[in-house]
Amino acid sequence: MNTRQRLFIMMVLEFFIWGAWLPLIFGYLPSLGFTPGQQSLILNAFPAASIVGVFFSNQWADRSSSPERVLALSHLVGGLAILGCGFTRSFMPFFLLMLVHCLLYVPTISITNSIAFANMKNADKEFGIVRMGGTVGWILAAWPFVFVFVNWDAVTAAHPAGLVNWLGTALANPLVGDAAKAATRWTFVVAGLASLALAAYSLTLPRTAPNARPAAAAGGTAWAEAFGLLKHPFILVLWLVTLVDAFVHNCYFNWTGIFLGTAREAGGVGIASNWITPVMSIGQVFEILTMFVLGATLKKLGWKATMIVGILGHAARFAVYALFPASAGMIIGVQILHGVCYAFFFATVYIFVDAYCPKDIRASAQGLFNLQILGVGVLLANSICPWLLQNVYTTGGTTDFRGLFLVPLAAASIAAIALALFFRPPTSGPAEAAKAA
User: Model confidence over 170-198: pLDDT tens digits?
Assistant: First the structure.
């Protein structure tokens, strides 16, 4: 197995963990009887961990002689924590376990990126393929739950004859109501087992050589140097636009599962519980195709245009949500834009950071943008989205999804315009920009 294949598997496991529990947690927490405030605390453990990671875990990875071992230890302890979430229904144990998991998991996203970039010869061409492993992992995490959320008592009572009849009966009998919500605990068990698998696999990854640093800077902190990059206008503009796009991106995760599962008479799409995660994974399937063409797209369109297309993908998707909420076919079909949104903006941002930022603070520079992508943007969404959904756009048990989805539609449009007007990366090239930074 060559290096690229090993990095690909690393990404599969890394994003399988996150993809297993994230899509359904928004509906699961209320079923445990947690208050809106308690739900926010649990959901915001992830962005809080991203903020903490900028100052500690990424610094550790940049200065560590073996980031692969950092990755292994993080997933060992973090895996046990998320596994525990599947076996508790009390707020405090659930919150503490989720907090431990997130504190250890979130920085590994930057660490896996830095390990991948350190072992590539041409990041523009190779990163899209390697990062596609994360997309595959997210998809693999979604589809098994088609069978986890099946009413097996009803299947047994039907006595289907033959494999085809058995499969048809299983898919026709999804869990509903409280039973479906209770089954969601298995998402945390699956995530925990995957994390433990990645802990073991991390020890087999290619050794990443420690970054060479000038002697005068050896005592400096990588995160402080990473924040120093914001003095450059082109990085500051991208950093701020990334915040807005991260907020929009997480509006999708906060609301889409609920929107899909809500009955039509209550304003939703009416998708069966066992098909919600597969429908949401359609975007990841298309993301694979998008990753294949990312290198060619960057070469043809350049940094700015590629990222603008990614942001406008969000705007287009929420426009369909807002204008055609009763059309299940259109809602399902528009999920393909998720691949465009992620690959053409977020993956492109990671490649841009690797190209334009100093290599000796690689993980911390990635963490600087993950502060927005996985931290502040998520924090804003997890704080604002439940309030908008429950207190502003829902009355009498019916949600005004059209008005709700106009919020991220407007935010994405503003972000695209800001990037078009103010983002001007140096024309001198990545090497010269990195030296200047």
Answer: 877 777 667 777 778 888 999 999 999 99
Q: Tell me the C-alpha distance between 58 and 222, whole Å.
A: 8
pLDDT value, residue 98? 96
Q: Which three-class secondary structure state does DSSP give residue 169?
A: helix
Instruction: Name residue, tokens 């069966």.
Output: 272
Would you state the pLDDT for residue 57? 55
pLDDT in tens, 235-246: 999 999 999 999
Place of tokens 């995760």: 253
What are the residue boundaries of the structural domains of the chain, listed by start? 3-206+221-436
**Interhelix angle for 67-85 vs 91-118, to 10°?**
150
d(CA 62, CA 351): 18
Interatomic CA distance for residues 433 and 173, integer angstroms: 58
Query: What global pTM score does this model have?
Result: 0.74
Angle at 180 between CA 174 and CA 185, to 5 degrees: 130
Q: Which superfamily does 3-206+221-436 belong to? A: MFS general substrate transporter like domains (1.20.1250.20)
∠ CA 158-160-166, rounded to 5°: 115
3-state secondary structure of 277: helix
With H, G, I as helix, E, B as strand and everything else as coil, classify residue 155: helix
